[in-house]
Amino acid sequence: MGQRAHPTSFERLLAVVRTIPPGQVASYGQVSARVLGTTPRMVGFALAALPTGSDVPWHRVVNAAGRISLPAEGPGHAEQRRRLEAEGVSFRKSGVIDLEAHGWL
DNA sequence: AGATTGACTGCAT
DNA sequence: CATGCAGCCAATC
User: For chain A, which domains are there?
Assistant: First the structure.
């Protein structure tokens, strides 16, 4: 099996996402800042390629404004919000998450 | 090999 | 508060 001897930055990003505790959220930028050589855009790309039913808590990643970045018209948006609320994450009236209360670190 | 795009971000207008 | 633009890196065409 010709696998690489060390995790790709793609996999490292997913590993970081796995460390976000339930009930908390981190921004794309915050996740990418933990893996040198990566950017917020890569985080979104990595999560978008995630297989259904993966163990990665992709829903705990939101944009820097504390808002869900998935297209509001798609099913992913509603699903992410549902999962977060199930973990106790509260949304403001405007649909913005209170990062002061739920922000990671 | 060059252009385009994406679940971003920060600063300027 | 809404828009625009540059910077960023990998995947795709």
Answer: 9-102 (1.10.10.10)
Q: Are A61 and A28 in contact (CB under 8 A)?
A: yes
The residue to which tokens 């933990």 are assigned: A34
- Could you write out the DSSP letters of every residue in A16-71? HHHTSPTT-BEEHHHHHHTSTT--HHHHHHHHHTPPTT-S--GGGEE-TTSS--S-
**pTM reported for the whole predicted model:** 0.93
pLDDT in tens, A56-74: 999 999 999 999 999 998 8
Kindly report the bases of strand B lying within 7 A of a protein C-beta atom.
Answer: 6-10
Statement: the CB of A9 is under 7 Å from strand C: yes
